[in-house]
């Protein structure tokens, strides 16, 4: 059931909800931003570790800068130049990134709004929000639903649903930072990752895609075989130098619901697999995290968590060769991301 999670700047009361499964996993989510706050997973000894970065209260999320655990939209990631055209009209967005690009939807972030709770039980919660025509500069109104389910297969599932009344881009994601040793356990550089991607979208020094898709083969970007995050992160390879680590959209192999990524910790024994039906995933190694005060008095530093942001490719609105995030009027936008946890003995 819900406990209080603080009062927002607007004077709204935020609440925290608990989901539990038979493996003893617990997920705490708040209606402030439809945000994942805590995710407790049994390690190989059966001790619970909280594997996501976050804050103790809604106020922490209001002050924080890293989108910890947030539901991000209407269009996650970057839109170059902060505008786009659709059906012959130009739409101006918020230049909140490098003074000109739009990042994570721009003004009035969805992770900074109070969502309504449509229903909640011990394994599932449905958050709803009405986004009016012109919200953040995007056309059309849409009622967005984000459903978190924690099932008995060790899976935390996030389901996104909306039916816009005009053609409009929709590209929601979750911005959790995972640390499989526990959120306060230092950096993730020794934890291993697999990314099911033969290519990634090349980006410029402001992380705006050039439109090229480069092969990972023979480069430090290659995570097709399990590899420690820190093994190649310091290499003087263009993509890594420009981003200060990994902060790239990987072009996922295949289509439909499939495994996109895996992360494991030898220390805790915890592994996480990420499944998505989307074409891309932003693998981001917390390069901008800098002495951020988080939950339980933890202080988060660079590389303390890794994000796996399932998505349409960044700046897809400006590249015809990228799959389009535009949803037609009256059509259903629906996508699912699953984080599946296990512990080896
Ligand atoms: C995304 C971006 C990063 C950074 C974070 C938020 O992952 O790709 O460059 O902006 O969000 O700090």
| Through-space gap between termini | 32 Å
Helix amount: under 10%
- Which regions have little confidence, pLDDT < 50, spanning 5+ residues? none
Please report which band the strand proportion falls in: under 5%, 5-15%, 15-25%, 25-35%, 35-45% or over 45%.
35-45%
Number of strands: 30
Q: Oligomeric state of the chains?
A: single chain
Radius of gyration: 19 Å
Largest sheet: 9 strands, antiparallel
Helix-strand category: mainly beta
The shape, in one word, is globular
- Give every kind of bound small molecule, once each: alpha-D-galactopyranose
Walk me through this protein's architecture.
The chain is 3% helix and 43% strand. The protein has helices spanning 58-63, 238-243; strands at 3-7, 13-20, 26-30, 35-42, 48-50, 71-72, 78-79, 83-86, 89-92, 102-103, 116-120, 124-131, 142-150, 155-162, 168-169, 173-174, 177-178, 192-195, 197-203, 209-215, 227-228, 247-252, 258-264, 270-276, 280-284, 292-293, 299-300, 306-311, 326-327, 333-343. The radius of gyration is 19 Å and the shape is globular. The two termini are 32 Å apart. The relative contact order is 0.18. Bound molecules: alpha-D-galactopyranose. Alpha-D-galactopyranose is lined by residues 66-67, 77, 103, 207, 247, 282, 284, 288, 307, 309.
């Amino acid at each position: 059931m819900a406990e209080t999670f603080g009062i927002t700047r607007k004077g709204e009361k935020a609440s925290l909800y608990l989901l539990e499964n038979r493996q003893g996993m617990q997920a705490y989510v708040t209606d402030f931003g439809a945000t994942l706050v805590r995710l407790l997973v049994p390690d190989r000894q059966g001790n619970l570790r909280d594997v996501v970065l976050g804050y103790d209260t809604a106020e922490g999320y209001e002050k924080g800068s890293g989108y910890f655990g947030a539901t991000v939209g209407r269009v996650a990631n970057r839109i170059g130049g902060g505008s786009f055209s659709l059906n012959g009209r130009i739409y101006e967005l918020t230049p909140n990134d490098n003074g000109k690009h739009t990042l994570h939807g721009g003004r009035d972030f969805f992770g900074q709004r109070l969502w309504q709770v449509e229903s909640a039980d011990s394994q599932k919660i449905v958050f709803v929000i009405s986004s009016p025509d012109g919200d953040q500069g995007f056309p059309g109104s849409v009622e967005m639903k984000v459903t978190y389910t924690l099932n008995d297969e060790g899976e935390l599932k996030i389901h996104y649903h909306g039916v816009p009344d005009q053609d409009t881009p929709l590209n929601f994601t979750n911005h959790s930072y995972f640390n499989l040793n526990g959120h306060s356990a230092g950096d993730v550089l020794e934890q291993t990752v697999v990314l099911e991607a033969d290519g990634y979208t090349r980006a410029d020094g402001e992380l705006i895609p050039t439109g090229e898709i480069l092969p990972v083969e023979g480069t430090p970007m290659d995570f097709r075989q399990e590899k420690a995050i820190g093994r190649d992160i310091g290499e003087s390879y263009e993509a890594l130098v420009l981003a200060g680590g990994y902060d790239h959209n990987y072009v996922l192999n295949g289509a439909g619901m499939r495994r996109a990524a895996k992360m494991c910790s030898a220390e805790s024994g915890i592994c996480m697999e990420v499944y998505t039906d989307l074409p891309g995933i932003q693998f981001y190694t917390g390069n901008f995290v800098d002495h951020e005060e988080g939950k339980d008095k933890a202080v988060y530093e660079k590389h303390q968590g890794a994000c796996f942001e399932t998505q349409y490719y960044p700046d897809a609105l400006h590249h015809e060769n990228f799959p389009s995030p535009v949803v037609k009027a009256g059509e259903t936008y629906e996508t699912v991301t699953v984080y599946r946890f296990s512990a080896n003995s």
